[in-house]
């Protein structure tokens, strides 16, 4: 629809222009810095930053119900920049003009309710938000669209030139970074660091296909992250990991979409997400807090972060009930099928601590929890989900396992409705499914396949066939007819089919 076809009172708000006053603020010393230059940590004390709009109060001049109408009407516009995360421009990138927005089709991924059979097995009503349907097949595109739009803005303004974007990754971040950087080539080039032999072949192929320089490094993600941090501190590069506060802004769109998808009614809702580098759960909390502050939602949903017992530093931190006694300690990770969350020292942990406290304070009760699951539970629930009409990655399986565990422990009530984050497309982690089917997991995973979840192809080639088709040697005439009849009869027998 064209703008002039909308109600008169909504027309002035449909196409946002630059506004607000964004600054970096240190979570430790509270010092503030301008955004003209790329910053990842506080120049004064070295701690992580978040972006704040010092003119956020201007947005409160518009009522919560009016904001709902604005976002709902924007759904009908045919303006590419507003079809993605910048539908919520005033909250995600208010200082950016729309022509700086990089839109590759990210955002507004479907929320799909689980079928009755799977909900009964889990014991609760729930949905998957399929973020594997983003352009690079993971939720990372949300933050990358924000980070690269900001870089594009700096390029347009002449503040930077010839940008080399770098990131450490377990797979999804590198795919998203390389994809979005390639869109801005040659002004932006990308280099990614991956832990050697810790990334699936499908994930490795993505940054290679996007033209990134790919470096494999001995060790795990945390080792790659240390190297990338060193590069960003000593060389002229743009860091694209979630240490980059612009990434967090983009990922807040996940919360906004959930709220809009449920008609802004968050009462009785619980959002379940995996915790790796902790950027996603940071963004989810921040997004819901902003919507709540503006009166767009009246209730803050429950939030449950999930970690594998093989990479569980956030879970261990919150085991201590007394906030004054909590002490964060990184952990040595073990191999995990939730590969993207196999992080022992999440860079966004200071953000998590700050936002959990604020979220619970605003809610008037504890609303943020962390649950732990086993590798066995992750794989079993992933396969159960996909046998019931979903396309869930291992991290979606981790969320479903976490939901079941959280319901059992009382962190989520049986009468609540849960929205689970399936962070990536299942095909990215198809190797783990095959390892399960082949009973080929190394012992350190601790995964034993369940017979009822194992599947394998069956060769159909009746022994009484003299001739069968071969590549380059097709059958014809009576030979083909006999092959078709006998093979069909064999399949019918195995399926116990009855003749019509």
UniProtKB/TrEMBL annotation:
Keywords, alphabetical: Amino-acid biosynthesis, Lyase, Pyridoxal phosphate, Threonine biosynthesis
InterPro entries from the UniProt entry: Ser/Thr_Dehydratase, Ser/Thr_deHydtase_PyrdxlP-BS, Thr_synthase-like, TrpB-like_PALP, TrpB-like_PALP_sf
Domain Tryptophan synthase beta chain-like PALP: 103-417
Pathway named in the protein's UniProt entry: Amino-acid biosynthesis; L-threonine biosynthesis; L-threonine from L-aspartate: step 5/5
Gene3D superfamilies: 3.40.50.1100
Signal peptide: none
EC number: 4.2.3.1
GO MF assignments: L-serine ammonia-lyase activity; pyridoxal phosphate binding; threonine deaminase activity; threonine synthase activity
GO biological process: isoleucine biosynthetic process; L-serine catabolic process; L-threonine catabolic process; threonine biosynthetic process
Enzyme class: lyase
One Pfam family in the UniProt entry: PALP
Keyword Lyase annotated: yes
Chemical reaction(s) catalysed: O-phospho-L-homoserine + H2O = L-threonine + phosphate
PANTHER family: L-THREONINE DEHYDRATASE CATABOLIC TDCB, THREONINE DEHYDRATASE, MITOCHONDRIAL-RELATED
NCBIfam families for the chain: thrC
Name of the protein in its database record: Threonine synthase
Species lineage: Bacteria, Pseudomonadati, Thermodesulfobacteriota, Desulfobacteria, Desulfobacterales
